[in-house]
Known about the structure:
CATH topology of the largest domain: Growth Hormone, Chain: A
CATH class of the largest domain: Mainly Alpha
Structural class: mainly alpha
CATH architecture of the largest domain: Up-down Bundle
Largest sheet: none
Strand content: under 5%
Number of domains: 2
Radius of gyration: 21 Å
Distance between the termini: 19 Å
Helix content: over 70%
Number of helices: 17
Amino acid sequence: xxxxxxxxxxxxxxxxxxxxxxxxxxxxxxxxxxxxxxxxxxxxxxxxxxxxxxxxxxxxxxxxxxxxxxxxxxxxxxxxxxxxxxxxxxxxxxxxxxxxxxxxxxxxxxxxxxxxxxxxxxxxxxxxxxxxxxxxxxxxxxxxxxxxxxxxxxxxxxxxxxxxxxxxxxxxxxxxxxxxxxxxxxxxxxxxxxxxxxxxxxxxxxxxxxxxxxxxxxxxxxxxxxxxxxxxxxxxxxxxxxxxxxxxxxxxxxxxxxxxxxxxxxxxxxxxxxxxxxxxxxxxxxxxxxxxxxxxxxxxxxxxxxxxxxxxxxxxxxxxxxxxxxxxxxxxxxxxxxxxxxxxxxxxxxxxxxxxxxxxxxxxxxxxxxxxxxxxxxxxxxxxxxxxxxxxxxxxxxxxxxxxxxxxxxxxxxxxxxxxxxxxxxxxxxxxxxxxxxxxxxxxxxxxxxxxxxxxxxxxxxxxxxxxxxxxxx
Length: 474
């Protein structure tokens, strides 16, 4: 790809950010609509979990394939196909007449999303070659998450209130069509000089692994550990993990380049992504049920309550990008870890009558933590890796985010289901307290890794992996 002018580079960034907005706002809109969907389609808590996790699971399973396929066949082409498929899936979701069909159509959306987000990040990485400029672009990219978090609940709440939950999927159509046209018009085509071979065995094992793990976590509270179904899916999860590790270590070009994980910053960023986005998934899920089913607020009112968190994410994500580019990731990660810990501990004190002033403070602190964490995750994932493999490296980070969000929803939902005593409205607050403590633990991990992954020893491991990867590509 020839060098673009600065104006053209930032136009490409804007187009890629539209795709992120499209995929990210879908999550926040769907979360705020869960009570309405549950009431209309008669879905239990586990059914609501599947509405979220069917999407994030498929997305996580196919992101690696999407990144490597785009590197092979052309990033622009793949990006446009994914956008079109996402639009089609959104339209199908809007006409779903049962929980089963809605879950199935969410999977269609996810297939399109898996062809959009890692590809967009790969396009950005190959467009912004200067490290500081790239870090700033990644910060803007992270800021779009804040925009979607701010706009999603408000737009979703207004749509659900005025036109029903089906309308939350309509908003994807005009945004998607604009992104599709602008991609065709302004984004240059690019491919990797050496694209990775397909790894069908690894791909199938990854899908089976993620699906069996999440199924076991979600269904265990209702079926019980002694259930033959749960024992079978837990066994499948262990077997598929062992099989995946065996297959990936015996391939020249595996689906997941396990040698990348010898880099302490890279492997640390993966764990941080799982913890951070697990906290986000759990926060959004619990927050929606608490505000609407326990407090009785309307979807729009509940969306307004999330504004402190969303606005802090929007403000701090670009700042975190610049800070990461100029001073490295440690400061941003420390602030993120502290934000997750403090906010989660405060939320363990929720009651059915907690005042707005008390609610706003932990929401704001959570937004600070999440706003600071995204840029160092992405920057660490792609820094030091060969540019020709940017699709694979960035897809690992994107996969970790989606895996984290899937696990977050699965874990906190299962904790609530297992701990409920009496009616949902009466028992939710006590049942959710353990879930907030689990999220506190995730914050502690982020804080610890902020120091472990940013020292001289960790940087040395990253340099060795980068040198070895460059030699293999050459």
